[in-house]
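Sample intake sheet
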Amino acid sequence: MQLTHDAEALAAALPDMPRWLETRSLLLSGNASVRVSDDGHGGVVLDTTFPSGAVFGRADCEFLREVLVEVPEDFELVVQMDTLQAAQEALPSWTVAQAVVHSLVRPYPSGERAEAGVVVSAPPEQRWLEGLPEDVRLYARLAEAIAVQIVGGAVVAVCAAGDVTETLWDVGIDTLEGHRRRGHAAACFHALAAWMAGRGRQPVWSAYEDYPPSLTLAAKLGFQPVDRIAVLSPTSQATS
């Protein structure tokens, strides 16, 4: 099948399933720059607002090197496991991290569920982002919706629906130092999951395989592993 430069057409051709969440979300976002190889068998979609992208189809080594030669050092490339070998051959100096993709054992029920001090904001309001680490603030600002835990008038935890498709959303979650292990992250997740379920979307949790805290929290919240993806980067990235 010849691939197209049309982002929406590409999104429609890919299944709306957990391992394709980041790729399809980008294609549907309106911020996608699509590059297709000359033979039409593979391509790369680049985010025009964030240093990230994804490989789709069977992109050859020369094409990948050409498209990705000038990406910034903090760039992250999502690669499906069946094309990981080709990507590694094209980008031998890039680091590779594998992520375990999770979905809930049972669909999350819709309805209002927010504990005291938890606020859902859609789209995210700037006032709830102040005081957050820069990388978390940027991710949350671009999210479709967020839930924040407020303690003493300040935001101490956030859960964000960053990547979103027709039926799925990616869980991005963080708690500030000094406020961890108090259930704040879980409270934010439950509030946002209920809100998103009311809009027909279920959560997906991706965690690097070498980061036990995220894997443990996923299991605690009722997630189970369903797939894997790889994330390639020009430099070694700190896991969070």
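Comment: The mean pLDDT is 92. The two ends are 38 Å apart (CA to CA).
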